[in-house]
Design goal:
Layout (H helix, E strand, L loop, with lengths): L3 H17 L5 H41 L6 H4 L9 H8 L1 H10 L7 H12 L2 H8 L5 H16 L3 H10 L7 H13 L16 H16 L1 H11 L10 H16 L5 H15 L4 H18 L13
């Protein structure tokens, strides 16, 4: 689930907080950073749980129709195609998903109006009508409908963004990745048996990457400031924006202490992050400083990369 870009962002946020507080404690900041990363998994299952609640609501509507005092023929013999959607049934009944949702999702019991609203929009849509009208059933059709529901009805919903901001301070910036991971979960399998939750980390190496980047950037901060100050002509380190300084420290850390991360990847990543997290002029400034420093560090033999294609 988590990619290196997301991990760099979380490390950047943690380091920015650490360097902004003169009395920051390394271990406290690291603990908060890892908590923020772990909460991403809660958000992922929270959003999957919304699909499960949508399925449960549809089942309740069918039962309510049958229990009416004067049920219509349609109430008594409802079209079950949606509630028997293979992916929805799998999400709602598979032990792996059930246990994970119970462990991570705070649930949608307090937000049933939202579930009802999503359901109403769904059943009033042309996509749903065509799906229900088609007598044929297939895994791919079930899958396509679920992808459409999530990408076109759930993901763009502004109220969900507001709700997440109120629920967790960590979730406001994480929704885009959570949404893409949910879509990957339901879009990827070609067979129902292949539907599985996404792991939080691709492997233990990614978790270690975040911790190492955080720790080494702090431990070598003074060294990095000296390097930056020599190349930041007419700029004292105190006058460089804290965000720009943090981005450059992280990049230098990767250049010098991460043997398996290509320098081009590092350079590109931090230039891109500067576009989202710093000023419009930061991209050019950071690119210029890092480009000069990388050349100097390589000449001094302080950039050591291992593996094919990792140098340069």
């Amino acid at each position: 689930m988590l990619n290196r870009r997301f991990l760099r962002i979380k490390v950047l946020q943690a380091l920015y907080g650490y360097f902004s507080r003169n009395d920051g404690e390394l271990r406290v900041g690291e603990k908060e950073m890892m908590k923020s990363i772990d909460r991403m998994y809660d958000l992922y299952f929270f959003m999957l749980d919304l699909l499960i609640n949508l399925h449960k609501h549809a089942e309740r509507k069918i039962e309510e129709g049958k229990e009416k005092k004067l049920p219509t023929p349609e109430d008594l013999n409802p079209n079950l195609k949606f509630v028997e959607n293979e992916l929805l049934v799998k999400l709602s009944t598979d032990d792996t998903f059930i246990h994970a949702v119970e462990a991570h999702s705070p649930g949608w019991a307090d937000h049933r109006d939202l579930v009802r609203s999503i359901y109403r929009e769904l059943i009033e849509s042309d996509v749903y009508e065509r799906y229900m009208r088609n007598p044929e059933r297939s895994f791919s059709e079930d899958q396509e409908l679920l992808v459409w529901i999530y990408s076109e009805i759930i993901a763009p919903r502004e109220f969900i963004h507001e709700l997440l901001e109120e629920t967790s301070m960590y979730w406001a910036d994480d929704l885009a990745l959570a949404n893409s991971t949910v879509l990957k979960t339901i879009r990827s399998p070609k067979k129902i048996e292949k539907l599985k939750p996404s792991p939080l980390y691709k492997d233990e190496e990614d978790r270690d990457f975040a911790i190492k980047l955080y720790r080494l950037t702090i431990l070598h901060s003074d060294e990095f400031i000296q390097l930056i100050s020599k190349r930041a002509v007419n700029w004292e380190s105190e006058r460089i924006a804290q965000m720009d300084l943090t981005l450059m420290k992280m990049a230098l850390c990767e250049f010098m202490y991460f043997e398996t991360v290509p320098t081009k990847v590092t350079m590109n990543e931090y230039i891109e992050l500067s576009k989202d997290y710093s000023t419009p002029r930061s991209k050019t400034f950071i690119n210029g400083i890092l480009d000069k420093l990388l050349g100097e560090l390589q000449k001094a033999g302080k950039v050591k990369k291992i593996g094919r294609g990792l140098i340069g």
